[in-house]
Specification:
alpha/beta, 60s Ribosomal Protein L30, Chain: A, seven-stranded parallel β-sheet, 10 helices, 12 strands, about 20% strand
Length: about 270
Amino acid sequence: MNNKGFEYISSRQNEKVKFFSKLSDQKYRREAGLFLAEGVKLADEAVRAGRAEYLLISEDALETPAVKEVLDKSGESVIKYILADAAFDKVSTEQAPQGIIAVCRIPSESEPEAEDLRGVRVIALDGIRDPGNLGTILRTALAFGYGEVALYDCADLYGPKTVRASMGALFRIRADVSSDLPSFLSSLKESGRRVLGAALCDGAKTFDGNDTDPSDVVVIGNEGHGISPAVLDACTSFIKIPMSSHSESLNAAVAASVIMWEYSKTDGINNER
């Protein structure tokens, strides 16, 4: 690895360090259109996906083999800064930093469109406020062949905790923030797809994976309050996961994982866009 051309920054008060450190705040992320992907795994995913605009490397980790490998892959188009350890620590949000952070561009937001999703597995999330749950659902959706995750009133997609929990899935799956999920779900129904709300409500059928169609769209609701009334009204029907009488509910990410696993057994649809 050739370090020629890398800019070295020693001070925590450097303007670039101040700028990058502000990206841990949602307001500044939105203003700058950038977010942080910390650690070797996420930086590597960002580089491979062509999403990394900057790489920040701590001086102490510069000769680490895993970090060097990411740098070698990144090419000349990615701007690289070597930071003194104290300066790097100011930017990092990790308790145990791995010495590398990718600074990535937030893609332009677009409303999900039913006509663009023919032949694509879709899951919709209503009010998933816990970033760990959101990131885990993205990771699981990628693993089980989903090509679209529609989000409504959810945690920040590009917050550090969401990005970390997604384990790189954020770079490989389409996730669209909807301003009007009920309308989007209605358009999916008009295209011939069923919209099933995962809800413990009257009329909910026990979900056993037998009555599944690969075009079904499942809605997962808020961790504490479930699916919002307007979104419930847009659902075709409702499903619930069979559980022991000793338990009342499942974590939102676990429930989503169980349902996506059952749907992954069906054929005829894929996540290629």
